[in-house]
Amino acid sequence: MRILITGSNGLLGQKIVKICLKRGTEFLATSNGKNRNYDCPDSRYLELDITNQNQIQEIFTSYNPTHIIHTAALTNVDYCELNPEECQEVNVNATRKLWEEAQKINAHFELLSTDFIFDGLKGNYKETDEPSAVSIYGQSKVDAENILIQSQNDNWSIARTIIVYGTANNLSRTNIVLWSIEALTKGDSMKIIDDQFRMPTWAEDLAWGCLEICNRNKKGIFHLCGPELMAVNEIVFRIAKHLGKSTQNVEIISSSTLNQPAKRPPRTGFDLSKSKSELDYKPKSIEETIDILLTEK
Ligand SMILES: NC(=O)c1ccc[n+]([C@@H]2O[C@H](COP(=O)([O-])OP(=O)(O)OC[C@H]3O[C@@H](n4cnc5c(N)ncnc54)[C@H](OP(=O)(O)O)[C@@H]3O)[C@@H](O)[C@H]2O)c1
User: Fold this and answer.
1) Radius of gyration of the chain (CA)
2) Residue having the nearest C-alpha atom to atom 11 of ligand 1
3) Is residue 75 in contact with ligand 1, taking CB distance under 6 Å?
4) pLDDT class of 229 with cuts at 50, 70, 90
5) Which residues pair with 201 in a beta bridge?
6) Structural domain boundaries of the chain?
7) What is the pLDDT of residue 172?
């Protein structure tokens, strides 16, 4: 197996690199700009802007991967809402370019997708449920998925996930668990919503699942998220309780007061039966992962 990773400077990309290094799996890490993951040797890294077809062609031909794990994307939901053309270029058109080149070299292509492809009215979504996005970001991922789903070639997989958290080097944005640990430890005031429900996902569990799809030569759609559905404020309260921190500076608010440009699905969450039975996917609880995170910080 020779895995090419896109978006290796991102949270998930860094965790896939970490597992590959630990296992001795052959890989090439690629991302926009310089290598910002100092755990990834520069010899295993190449700059790749996924919107540039010539760069894709050159790198795919010279590295000749057997698998591509495509994590790179514009992931800021509000930014995508305000910049729909850029979102289309990076999340949809670049996926098409990568898939076209993957097919030429007969490589398996794995796309990362999201719970935001659903409207969040039902919850507990299965892989077979129909998408119905409520944001530009969500729709861009539906469109990217459809490039694969509607293809004649079935050498692809889609790994959908939900609120990913964990530590990594030089990330361009933080995540809810890191932010909560820091704010609760300092006693900073926090405003947190109680009317959206998610299954938060430890980035290392997700990375493990993404690699397992490749290891087991799986095709099709897989749901990979954390084991429990909770309101967003519950994430913070669970962390506070586990760390023995006070929540007196945590204020509960309604999402309607945030005036965010993009709409969010109120209740997502995935049915994990397929990933558990076909991949032996066993995601960890928030409490188990915090203990690990604290040793990494
Ligand atoms: N994080 C979540 O909560 C979440 C939830 C559901 C689904 N997902 C999906 O899971 C995947 C991985 O998420 P993540 O948390 O690892 O995201 P992330 O930390 O934002 O990483 C995405 C990476 O893609 C890179 N990138 C953006 N545009 C690029 C381009 N044109 N060419 C090459 N690289 C580019 C970014 O570069 P810079 O660092 O330079 O900006 C970043 O390193 C994404 O596809 C995302 O949509 C994430």
Assistant:
1) 19
2) 71
3) yes
4) very high
5) 164
6) 2-167+201-228+268-285
7) 78
Determine whether 20 is exposed, middle or buried from the number of CB atoms within 10 Å of its CB (0-12, 13-18, 19+).
buried
User: Which one, of 79, 82, 80, 143, lies nearest residue 113 by Cα?
Assistant: 143
The pLDDT, as a whole number, for residue 297 is 63
The mean per-residue pLDDT over the stretch 209-226 comes to 98
Pocket flag, ligand 1, residue 279 (CB < 6 Å): no
Does residue 52's CB lie within 6 angstroms of at least one atom of ligand 1?
Answer: no
Query: Is the beta carbon of 174 within 6 A of some atom in ligand 1?
Result: no
What order of strands is seen across the sheet that includes strand 67-70?
A: 45-47, 26-31, 2-6, 67-70, 108-114, 156-161, 220-223
- The finding on whether 56 has its CB within 6 A of some atom of ligand 1 is no
Residue-wise pLDDT for 19-63, tens only, equals 999 999 999 999 999 999 999 999 999 999 999 999 999 999 999
Per CATH, is 2-167+201-228+268-285 categorized as 3.40.50.300? Answer: no
- Give yes or no for residue 95 CB within 6 A of ligand 1: no
Please, which residues have CB within 8 angstroms of residue 85's CB and are 6 or more apart in sequence? Answer: none
Region 254-271: what's the mean pLDDT?
Answer: 97
Q: Does the global pTM surpass 0.85?
A: yes
Residue 111 Cβ inside 6 Å of ligand 1? The answer reads no
For 176-187, the pLDDT digits (tens) are: 999 999 999 999
Q: Considering only CA atoms, which residue is closest to atom 48 of ligand 1?
A: 164
Whose CA is closest to atom 15 on ligand 1? 11
DSSP-assigned letter for residue 91? I
